């Protein structure tokens, strides 16, 4: 028997059928189970403490263009106030009262046709968020 005859039959020799489903995705069950667990316990995604947040912010700055410190500040601001990315990008200087340590959330910035658009928050109400250790109050 010559070596050519020992080769596996080609696709056309098997009647055009393939042995395995090319669309079959494996391993997704574990990922899905982990995502479900994180939805059931959102604290599983939380950072351990301030040091972990600070380390993350420093890593972000280190990987940014020109090591821009502002990215670390934005990350700390968003994390300390549990703000959504649209709320963070919608903050204006007048929204922050530094003397009373209050930030007013009244808009979010989102991508839209022609560029970024400002619109109301998801709750359609103004929210006053106190600085660290404070509580949110809806108006």
Uncertain ranges: 133-139
Rounded mean pLDDT is: 77
Question: Percentage of helical residues?
Answer: 25-40%
Strand arrangement, major sheet: 1-2-5-6
Strand content bin: 15-25%
Number of strands: 6
How far the N terminus sits from the C terminus, by CA atoms, comes to 87 Å
Secondary structure category: alpha+beta
This entry's quaternary arrangement is single chain
Counting DSSP H or I runs of 4 or more residues, the number of helices is 4
Q: Given the C-alpha coordinates, what overall shape results?
A: elongated
The profile of the biggest β sheet is: 4 strands, antiparallel
Global Rg: 26 Å
SSE string, helices as H and strands as E = HHHHEEEEEE
Give me some keywords for this one.
139 residues, alpha+beta, four-stranded antiparallel beta sheet, two-stranded antiparallel ribbon, 6 strands, elongated
Write the layout of secondary structure elements.
Elements: H1 28-40, H2 50-63, H3 70-81, H4 85-89, E1 96-97, E2 102-105, E3 108-112, E4 115-119, E5 127-130, E6 136-138
Antiparallel strand pairs: 1-2, 2-5, 3-4, 5-6
Helix pairs in contact: 2-3
Describe this structure in words.
It is a single chain. This protein is an alpha+beta fold and 139 residues long. Helices cover 32% and strands 17% of the residues. It has 4 helices and 6 strands; from the N terminus they run ααααββββββ. The protein has helices at residues 28-40, 50-63, 70-81, 85-89; strands at 96-97, 102-105, 108-112, 115-119, 127-130, 136-138. It has a 4-stranded antiparallel sheet with strand order 1-2-5-6, with no helix packed on it. β5 and β6 (136-138) form a beta hairpin. α2 packs antiparallel against α3. It starts with 27 loop residues before the first helix and ends with a strand.
